[in-house]
Structure to design on (533 residues):
């Protein structure tokens, strides 16, 4: 499976919520699974192959201004 | 003609020359608010007593010869995301029903310094996390969305209650309500103005800026709220330019990029035509139209959401763990998704942002500005916030509206939305002009040229007549 085709299963989403410390009932998970999985699949597309040496667009400054 | 119906610069001039007092101007604004608010619910909190108190102070200062400038004594509405000392600031959420800040946000403090008068706090889509602002009606059709997340600000400006209201923009939240309500909206360059004291949606993508009736109003307010702030590490230490002088210099000889992809996909015919008409207007004024291909178009939306969602969740994590039931279900669901995102997906989105910025910089080497529809379509019904496309696709209003505005958040480039047309149903449509970094004066010049050569900028929605 390529990265762009990734869609998390309901069990994977449940595990992620538990690890994040969120209490999500099984009913809530079932009702919202489509929203959870489709959005996480969209987000996964940002982990595109070939990013190589590209640095993140962040700007920590060590100066004390 | 009532005072609120006059353009802001005319009101300002009357205040400067003491033909009218800030108290009269504020009373006119409050009277208009009383007239339209029952149909719109644009405000979370109104502050008539504070407004009249501030207006009386402004009146005395001016009569004593201490005129501060064109914003002195002018009413202001502020999105309820911005801290206002002593005034309830709820972010339109049950999580902050009783939150009363001790200090003003930096932007509000700067506008107070310029002499503006707070008449109230406008509704936002809860914590700015959405583009429809369900609490509020669109002044041109109260059964339709004003957009969001700064929907209350869009409604307050379009209905004539204020000439200027503050918004914030993480994926389009200034420009979306501006376009749907028929107002001007300016998202500045990332780093132009401090976000300190404004509830965050995404530190990497948040911008603050104005919605206004006319272009020059946004120029004046944006300049007043701009500047480096060491307490906001996102701000950049660059001089704040005069955004008004030269606004009427015209666009002759300027190169306008016209996208041949991305901004042309799944766009309603009337929205696309409005942008084409605006481009033709500018071309007739001497600008050159240059077709451009938007680079890395397939990565823009995933980058926007992959950065925004975990940052939003991190900001709200305590609420999400301890009182999730106080969020609307929509906001809670989005925040939950952010908790499930891998850190590696977030970092890779930040790396994509680096590549997108470089590619857009290259695209801008052959143009001065980019012109595109602000939105894919006009306002949806509040009761049915979806767009149904001819191919059978159904798209939620928030993702649909964000599609064309998010690129300026990911790239951090300044973008000005200007009213461009009305649909056959009488709903406003906007066009956006995206500029190079810190080129706010240039995009304002394009907006001003459109305003001077069309008849759709500066209109006030009748509201009450429409509701009746």
């Amino acid at each position: 499976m390529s990265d762009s085709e990734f869609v998390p299963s309901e069990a994977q989403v449940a595990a992620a919520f538990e690890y994040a410390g969120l209490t999500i009932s099984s009913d809530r998970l079932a009702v919202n699974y489509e929203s959870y999985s489709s959005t996480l699949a969209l987000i996964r597309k940002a982990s595109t192959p070939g990013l190589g040496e590209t640095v993140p667009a962040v700007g920590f400054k060590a100066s004390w201004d | 003609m009532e005072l609120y119906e006059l353009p802001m610069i005319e009101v300002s001039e009357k205040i400067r020359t003491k033909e009218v007092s800030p108290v009269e101007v504020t009373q006119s604004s409050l009277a208009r608010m009383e007239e339209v608010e029952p149909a719109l619910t644009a405000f979370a909190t109104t502050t008539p007593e504070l407004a009249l108190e501030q207006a009386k102070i402004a009146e005395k200062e001016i009569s004593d010869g201490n005129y501060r400038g064109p914003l002195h004594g002018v009413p202001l509405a502020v999105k309820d995301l911005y801290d206002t000392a002593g005034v309830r600031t709820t972010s339109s959420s049950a999580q902050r029903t009783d939150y009363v800040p001790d200090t003003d946000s930096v932007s509000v403090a700067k506008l107070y310094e310029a002499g503006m008068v707070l008449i109230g706090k406008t509704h936002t889509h809860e914590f700015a996390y959405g583009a429809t602002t369900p609490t509020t009606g669109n002044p041109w059709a109260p059964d339709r969305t004003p957009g969001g997340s700064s929907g209350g600000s869009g409604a307050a400006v379009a209905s004539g209650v204020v000439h200027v209201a503050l918004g914030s923009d993480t994926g389009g939240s200034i420009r979306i309500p501006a376009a749907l309500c028929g107002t001007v909206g300016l998202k500045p360059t990332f780093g132009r103005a401090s976000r300190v004291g404004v509830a965050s949606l995404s530190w990497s993508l948040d911008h603050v800026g104005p919605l206004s009736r006319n272009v020059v109003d946004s120029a004046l307010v944006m300049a007043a709220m701009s500047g480096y702030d060491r307490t906001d590490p996102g701000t950049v230490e660059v001089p704040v330019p005069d955004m008004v002088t030269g606004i009427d210099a015209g666009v002759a000889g300027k190169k306008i990029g016209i996208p041949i992809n991305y901004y042309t996909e799944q766009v309603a015919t009337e929205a696309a035509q409005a942008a084409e008409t605006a481009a033709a207007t500018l071309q007739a004024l001497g600008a050159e139209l240059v077709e451009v291909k938007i680079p890395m178009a397939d990565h823009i939306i995933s980058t926007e959401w992959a950065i925004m969602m975990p940052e939003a969740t991190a900001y709200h994590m305590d609420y999400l763990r301890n009182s999730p039931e106080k969020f609307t279900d929509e906001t809670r669901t989005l925040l939950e998704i952010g908790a499930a995102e891998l850190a590696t997906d977030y970092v890779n989105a930040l790396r994509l942002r680096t590549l997108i910025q470089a590619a857009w910089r290259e695209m801008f080497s052959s143009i001065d500005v980019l012109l595109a529809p602000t939105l894919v379509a006009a306002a949806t019904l509040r009761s049915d916030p979806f767009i149904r496309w001819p191919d059978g696709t159904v798209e939620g209003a928030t993702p649909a509206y964000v599609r064309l505005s998010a690129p300026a958040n990911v790239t951090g480039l300044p973008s000005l939305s200007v009213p461009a047309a009305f649909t056959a149903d009488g709903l406003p449509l906007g066009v956006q002009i995206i500029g190079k970094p810190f080129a706010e004066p240039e995009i304002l010049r394009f907006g001003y040229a459109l305003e001077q050569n069309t008849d759709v900028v500066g209109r006030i929605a009748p509201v009450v007549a429409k509701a009746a």
Summary: Helices of chain A lie at 10-20, 26-44. The mean pLDDT of chain A is 91.
